[in-house]
What we know:
By secondary structure, this protein is an alpha+beta fold. The protein is built from 2 helices and 4 strands, in the order αββαββ. The chain has helices spanning 3-28, 54-64, and strands spanning 33-36, 42-48, 69-74, 79-85. α1 (3-28) packs antiparallel against α2 (54-64). The longest helix is centred in the N-terminal third of the chain and has 26 residues, at 3-28. It is elongated and about 45 Å long. The model is unreliable at 90-98 (pLDDT under 50).
Amino acid sequence: MTEDSVRRRLAEARAEAREIAKALYLLTGQRPSVTRADSGGLKVSVRVVGSYDEALTVALIRVLERGDRYGHRKAERWEYVWTEIRVQALDSGDEGAA
């Protein structure tokens, strides 16, 4: 990727992260965080408080699926869900890598 295309992709990823964070806030009532992921992409995460009914859980997963990969993490005191947005496109030899 050229430097300009990386900048453009980063701007797109930031915009997508903002939209995902907004949707997660509306669903959970918790303020999401947007951080740089270990992969160099952007990671949107939010703390999960309490339990959710099936409809809310499905809606939450649909929002998380908007990223390139997503998951759940249980810390000592809290549980979090997260989604990661890739910034750089995969090289043809990297397909399937996460």
